[in-house]
Structure formats: structure tokens, C-alpha cells
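Researcher: Checking consistency across runs. Here is DUF4229 domain-containing protein again:
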Amino acid sequence: MAGVSWVGVSVSLGFVGLAVLAWCAFRVYLGVRRFGRELERTRRRLAPKHSALRDELSELQDARVPQAPRDGVRSS
């Protein structure tokens, strides 16, 4: 008779453990969604600055005058 009561206790503890894991997984899911929204908001805020920097970089690369290759330094 005593062995049968342990079965009920172990099954109920298993369900409680699964409930705790489900709650933790739900909290992680909410955190990941919130983090994704924050990343998207940051990406939208930085997009104009990123575009301006990319344009400035391309202007600097276009303005750079190519130089003819020289002899350079020779070792003796």
C-alpha cells in the first residue's frame, strides 16, 4: 500500500516540474520578443546615420586620387 502512494507523489512532482519549466520557457519567450522589438527600434533609429556614413565613405573613396606605383624602399 505504501508503494502506491509514492507513485502518486512522483507523478504529481513530475507535473509540477513540467509546469515550472513551461513557466520559465514562457518568460524566455516574452524576453526574446521584447529584445527583438528593441533591436528593431534601434535599427530604425540608426538607419539614417548609417546611410549618411555610407554615403560619406563612398564620397571619400571616389575623391581619393590613385597614385602611380613607385620603387618603394629597397633593402641592401
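Researcher: Does this match what you'd expect to see?
Model: One thing to look at in this run: The chain has one helix and no strands.
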